[in-house]
Amino acid sequence: MSQVFNFIVDSLKIAGAPYNIINNELIMAQCQVQVPRTFFTPAHIETLNLQIVCHPDHLAKYPGSELVTKGSYRLQWFVDGIKKRGLIFKGSVPYELDHRKIERQINNLLKEAPRFFYKQPLLYYQPNLLVNFKIGFETDEKTEELYSLSINLVTGEIASNLLNELSNKRVVTTLPKKHLEKRKIPYSEGFKALSNHLKWLLQNHDDQWIENAKLRWQEEVNYLEEFYRGEPKEDLHAFYRQIAEIYRKYRPIIRIEIINVAILYLPIVIYTLESWEANKVLNPIIYDPVKQKIRWNGQ
Amino acid sequence: MDSTLSTLNFETNNRALSAELPNFQPIFEETNQFSEFLLNMRRKNWDSWEAFQIHVQGEEMTLSKGFEELLVLTHLQEHWRKNGFLHYPHQIETVKKVISQLRGRAILADEVGLGKTIEAAMILKEYMLRGLVKRFLILTPASLCRQWEAELREKFEINSLIARRDFEWSQYNHLIASIDTAKKEDNRNEILKQYFDMVIVDEAHKLKSSNTQNFQFVNSIQKKYFLLLTATPLQNDLKELFNLITLIRPGQLGSYRNFKKNYVVDKRKTKNVNELKNLLGEVMIRNKHGANIGFTKRNVQNIPIILSDLEREMYDRTTAFIRNCLTKRTNAMSALPLLTLQREICSSTFAAIITLYKLVNKVQIDESEQEEAVALLRLAQQIKDNAKMAVVEELVRKTPEKVIIFTEFLGTQSYIRTRLEQAGILTLAFDGHLSASKKEFTKYQFKEFPQYRALVCTESGGEGINLQFCNTMINYDLPWNPMRLEQRIGRIHRLGQERDVFIYNLSIKDTVEEHLLKLLDEKVKLFHSVIGESDRVIGKLCSGKSLESRIMELVFKSETHEQLSQNFEQLGAEIEALINEDTPDWDGLL
Questions:
Q1: B67 inside domain
Q2: Is residue A39 scored above 80 in pLDDT?
Q3: ipTM, 2 dp
């Protein structure tokens, strides 16, 4: 099944619209559509029956069906609809303390064989702010990219792949009753840090798109100069007016749009250790089961 | 005054300019604020993780990536499939070229009927889908505003407003306006304050002179992307082309002085054609009728009509009366009603009656002429039926298709309708009196309701309206201007017409009409050439003294049918010579 097919099925599921899938080829769905107030006051709800296929070959097999592919109007319709959902999320990644399993995982992450005994592990949930951004690189042309950044609201650590890491994890809307760590960084401060980090990333982004636009703009300026060369001085005003008009077309703009925001409580396991050597005190190991990382500086 | 001071010194100015030019550093713009999300968080409007993920996935699938693929094609494929709208490879190529190579500023100069409007609308939609165009303004002749609005809505799902009042220019983002409305002082002032992401000017040959108000107004509008649509970017003078190019990209052809020096021999002759052609190719696209762009077949049948005795008497006496009046004409009486009467009598006696009645009541006319006019009026009143009508009725009955009947006169139009309705054939009327919305509604009724078999149009009514869903046309009378005849045919024979087209021309034997039809058919080859080819011929015929006035002159000069026939032969020979004469240099240029 194609990505579009899955997306539509998921959207219908989330919207709570009744649907039926036939042969993994046809989606029959019933959607409620709000007819704008322009026509009805208050807005009127109508039922829209959809028969969707996502492959051109299936069109003939299911007469009356609509082909939905990447870039199609109906896909945009679903995307526009789903944009009103999933704007903010608060939840956690539940984690079960399983000594043997955790120890095995930590051992795998250590560079050398451990020379210590594991003692009691402690489980904490730390708040993280995850923000997804859509970035538009705009001149007279436009390309867009998605950036997903997160900040640990306790440690201030910024990461750029949390969303991917969570894709195969179970995320729930409930928060654990115990071991919730309080945030040390307020949401707005956290967002500010993410925003600054994003700008730093964008400043270091490949600037070929700016260079290309600059060349195009310079070419236009040269044409204008050629046109006004030898013209009376009164035309200077028109010259600069046109320069300004062209600049407005080619100037590089980076548009930052926040897509959605999540507050995620992610598990952190802290293991206290006991060294094999007597009188040697070891720092605890901090294990992040979501990112599969450890933080430990030995003694 | 020192001449060096009165001109721009670019050596100095370049330095000043480079200092003043912006440094091209990217500007950061935030489209929404975190506080909006924070507010929702405080209100605890939390959603599910699945919804959160699918939202991101949706955004990811609709990200804008380069110009390699046209979004408009996939975006509207279903809509077009359902509505039976077809696009053509040359249109796609044009859209791709304008967007990726010409950077959204171009002259679309396709020959008539190749779908310039569609190309422009596709470019507009493509930019809108990419989020690069949010505000646009389309300037067209007033008669085409409604058609643009309908095409954008029906074929491209773009809702727009036909703007008329000064507050609308800043209030709405998708605007269509007649250029005459837009340039009125109040509107003009408002428009010039705005910035438009895209401006489209239809029938842009009206901007060919840089001294006109139209040119200066359009040039002053602040815009990002800019399209000029014209089938005739070059008519009489190379300066016209220079001016159009200057609107799109000043300096593309250098300054006018350089342009003249490098490319102009005289106003109709060019030099360095290949170099100039390359420069034009950077701002202009011209698709021509050819092997790659197919049209359906045009079947033309000329049907000679023999007048009844009474009609013949009426025709002969009216022609003699007009000739007589014109010979004796004093300044007090205008020739116009007489000229109209001559054309009307070729159309139908019912059209002539109205003018005759007006003539009878005119004070300036002398007594003998008035008596003759009264006699003619009485004679006309005796004629209850015209020979042409029987043929029309038979044609409408015979064909299973819906039929468009064109006439030049309102009197004839109402006669045709009355007669057809008496015969049990339901008709609709299309004329210049209908408002734009009524026209749209009439078109809809004619298209959708099978009981309406015929649409009886006058030329002013049918102007700019596309009726490709029909394939049969009857020319009840013939306009004396071939351009108007070509426009009539263009209503049904254009891109999008999927079936062969049938055109029936009615002409009365031994009248001007018979000679005129022969001239248009055999010499101008109006009915047989592909669309666009005849355009060139007509363009030639209509430069200088119009063909219409030449024909009028012939009619009044000829006292007998033989003379008339001889004079038409002579005109035909002249036209042939004109067509065969060397075409100006720019035929290879465009």
A1: no
A2: no
A3: 0.92
